[in-house]
């Protein structure tokens, strides 16, 4: 349900410490949605805002 909501909201990222529970089923795969940890997100955000 969380992945479906993220996709419906056109989210680029789903940020969670529990990435193993958010593996995307092939039926739900969307290359525009990245599932990342908070640390990974901050690294991505910092590199794009330098």
Automatic annotation (TrEMBL):
- Protein name, as recorded: PIN domain-containing protein
């Amino acid at each position: 349900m969380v992945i479906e909501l993220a996709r419906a909201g056109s989210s680029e990222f789903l940020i969670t410490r529990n990435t193993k529970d958010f593996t995307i089923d092939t039926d739900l795969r969307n290359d525009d949605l990245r599932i990342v940890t908070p640390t990974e997100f901050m690294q991505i955000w910092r590199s794009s805002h330098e």
